[in-house]
Recover the amino acids of this structure.
């Protein structure tokens, strides 16, 4: 079977390509630009084109007929590749349909990691721990990993570990054996117009899961909940138990340990030791160079958690921040007030625009005005001047975090 993936470089689509390749499918795809994910896929021999036109997909279909066209949520309904697939009778779906069918066909027990924050890191922790324990698993995570591919199919595996994203209600395609929730907080206003819409999607997902694991704060946030089978924890993992920087990291690892001890009776103390050596995930407080890190944080709660983690390593923290989506900025701007507390300096970039709704774009000055200490931040651009500022901070022994979900990460890697 030939699978063609439009938007193959995306954090949800790239891992799907690796999974399909492992399972013996022929895989190709397209994307608007090269990034770390497309480079990883190209290294595995996947053919990728960087012009998403009717002519390019027609040429691919002529050479190797496409059986299944899978597309990202960012694709418009009149996109030329999507139109071509429909007009030529090719099966068309988003990634959730493919993955749920894949899991069923291979009789895998699904462990889904869901929630607003911490999904990628927590999924990475599961994969890391399974590898160290010699537990065969198949998996898909929405990032690159320094210790393996972004997705893998192992025919010996009983479990499929999946980062179940709520965006576009993707997670409602799945019926997990276990669902794990690191953190839940309202997000994605372009999909969920109200807080209760967001909560209800999670309630529906929880009811689709046989067993759920979460923290008390999130259990309370989702009330009223039906009588779903749920284990609720209040514990805050200490550095003595799990030797990772950042309270959020330690809490995420704690949930992983509790889950693994449930499914295979591993001693929790042994699991804590294994998780203390976790090598991290791409763009999740990823060390690029001495005193230079990259992080995907683009929500006030994520920003605060990342800064708290960084300040455990170095009290002098500088942030280069690129907001994500103008539509989201209207929802989160008031949350910026104390999100950057404790940093020495913020270089605030223009918002990365995607899937917008036509509202006026909030500028760096508009958003900086929401900070409790406005003098911490200044507007900036991704240019040589910013590169020089970053290098001067590093030379002074300060820790610099490149922060955001947009192309600022690629810029930093290329410039620095």
């Amino acid at each position: 079977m030939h699978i063609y993936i439009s938007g193959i470089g995306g954090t949800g689509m790239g891992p799907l390509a690796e999974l399909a390749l492992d399972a013996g499918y022929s895989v190709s795809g397209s994307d608007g630009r090269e990034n770390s994910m497309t480079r990883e896929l190209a290294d595995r021999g996947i053919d990728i084109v960087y012009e998403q036109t009717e002519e390019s997909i027609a040429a691919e279909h002529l050479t190797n007929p496409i059986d299944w066209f899978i597309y990202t949520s960012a694709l418009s309904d009149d996109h030329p590749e999507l139109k071509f697939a429909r007009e030529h009778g090719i099966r068309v779906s988003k990634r959730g349909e493919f993955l749920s069918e894949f899991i069923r066909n291979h009789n895998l027990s699904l462990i889904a990691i869901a929630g607003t924050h911490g999904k990628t890191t927590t999924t990475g922790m599961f994969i890391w721990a399974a590898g160290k324990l010699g537990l065969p698993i198949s998996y898909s995570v929405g990032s690159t990993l320094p210790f393996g591919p972004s997705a893998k199919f192992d025919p010996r595996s009983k479990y499929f570990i999946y980062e179940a994203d709520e965006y576009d209600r993707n997670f409602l395609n799945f019926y997990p054996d276990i669902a794990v929730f690191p953190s839940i907080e309202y997000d994605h206003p372009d999909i969920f117009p109200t807080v209760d819409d967001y909560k209800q999607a999670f309630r529906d997902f929880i009811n689709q899961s046989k067993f759920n694991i979460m923290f008390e704060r999130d259990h309370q946030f989702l009330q009223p909940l039906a009588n779903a089978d749920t284990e609720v924890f209040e514990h805050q993992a200490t550095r003595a138990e799990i030797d990772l920087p950042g309270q959020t990291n330690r809490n995420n690892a704690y949930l992983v340990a509790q889950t693994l001890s449930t499914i295979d009776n591993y001693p929790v103390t042994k699991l804590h030791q294994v998780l203390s050596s976790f090598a991290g995930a791409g763009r999740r407080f990823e060390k690029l160079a001495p005193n230079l890190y990259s992080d995907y944080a683009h929500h006030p709660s994520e920003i605060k958690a990342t800064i708290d983690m960084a300040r455990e390593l170095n009290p002098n923290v500088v942030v280069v921040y690129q907001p994500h989506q103008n539509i989201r900025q209207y929802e989160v701007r008031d949350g910026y007030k104390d999100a950057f507390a404790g940093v020495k300096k913020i270089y605030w970039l223009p918002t990365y625009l995607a899937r917008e709704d036509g509202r006026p774009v909030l500028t760096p000055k508009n958003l900086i005005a929401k900070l409790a200490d406005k003098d911490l931040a200044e507007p900036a651009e991704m240019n040589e001047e910013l590169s020089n500022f970053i290098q001067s901070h590093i030379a002074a022994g300060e820790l610099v975090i490149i922060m955001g979900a947009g192309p600022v990460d690629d810029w930093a890697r290329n410039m620095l």
